TrEMBL record:
Organism annotation: Duncaniella dubosii
Name of this chain's protein: 2-C-methyl-D-erythritol 4-phosphate cytidylyltransferase
Annotated family: Belongs to the IspD/TarI cytidylyltransferase family. IspD subfamily.
Site (Positions MEP for the nucleophilic attack): R170, K225
Pathway: Isoprenoid biosynthesis; isopentenyl diphosphate biosynthesis via DXP pathway; isopentenyl diphosphate from 1-deoxy-D-xylulose 5-phosphate: step 2/6
């Protein structure tokens, strides 16, 4: 796996006490569609990923940034950075077959004796705010990790294999967002296990490894994941409001 230190000095890239944001941006954006993965599509005049990175950095300027990119998009991303005079230092790591594998690749460059915090954030969630990040960081204290979650506002039905469905008590459900933040030592251990398709987020990886003391903090309904066509316009609107 190659590692690219964008606008940074590789010898001073990561120390064991560093706090790190891992921004996963190696997906193909199949639900969003189009020729370019959504994280490189235009949001307010430049590639979405730049907004995500800048907002994370402005909330936590001392945290290091790792960006996970598919190998076939790395040169294109570097070109976009040049074209947009985007100079924020970040380390680029190759993506994996699934989101979880992309995270694992990023973790492979973190010092194994790291004592910092690691945040994992979807590139596709550009409307991240300082107050949400602060609440999650505060939430990690004394826990195995902290993650933002929102109450579900639609009614929910569970669909069986026979096509029948039944109502579910939505008061017990939460929709989970990112960033999800964990002590590095625990996260590194958790990602040592075999990665299963059911691991759709990092909290599920931690839980499967026995780290069940996970604190849910109030999520932000504006912190949407750009997933389907139309979501970009909503994200742009939300950015203009916050
Ligand atoms: N192999 C993968 C798959 C996803 N991601 C990242 O994980 C985040 C959440 O995934 P999702 O929104 O599902 O993105 P895609 O996988 O690109 O979308 P789709 O499922 O529609 O193809 C995104 O920022 C995406 O780039 C990643 O880094 N590596
Ligand atoms: C990590 C996540 O954004 C939390 O809601 C979500 O699980 C990602 O799912 P996706 O299918 O990879 O978009």
């Amino acid at each position: 796996m190659s590692t690219h230190y964008y606008n940074n000095n590789p010898t001073s890239a990561l120390n064991k006490t560093d706090n790190v944001h891992i921004v996963v941006a190696a997906g193909s954006g199949s639900r969003y569609g189009g020729n370019l993965p959504k994280q490189f599509c235009d949001l307010a005049g430049r590639p979405l990923l730049m907004t995500t990175l800048e907002r994370l950095h402005s909330c936590t300027p001392e945290w290091k940034l790792i960006v996970v990119l598919s190998t076939d998009m790395t040169d294109e991303w570097l070109g976009m950075c040049k074209d947009n005079s985007f100079t924020l230092p970040h380390i680029i790591v190759n993506g994996g077959a699934t989101r979880a594998h992309s995270v694992k690749n990023a973790l492979s460059i973190i010092p194994q004796d790291s004592s910092g915090l690691i945040s994992i954030h979807d590139a596709a969630r550009p409307v991240i705010t300082p107050s949400l990040i602060s609440a999650i960081i505060d939430g990690v204290e004394g826990c195995d990790g902290a993650l933002p979650a929102c109450a579900v506002t639609d009614s929910i039905r569970l669909v069986g294999t026979d096509g029948n469905s039944s109502a579910v008590d939505r008061s017990k459900l939460r929709a989970v967002q990112t960033p999800q933040i964990f002590p590095a030592d625990k996260l590194l251990k958790a990602y040592g296990q075999e990665l299963l398709p059911v691991f759709t987020d990092d909290a599920s990886v931690m839980e499967a490894a026995g780290y069940t003391n996970l604190r849910l903090v109030d999520g932000d309904p504006h912190n949407i994941k750009v997933t389907n066509p139309g979501d970009m316009a909503i994200a742009e609107l939300y950015l203009s409001l916050i």
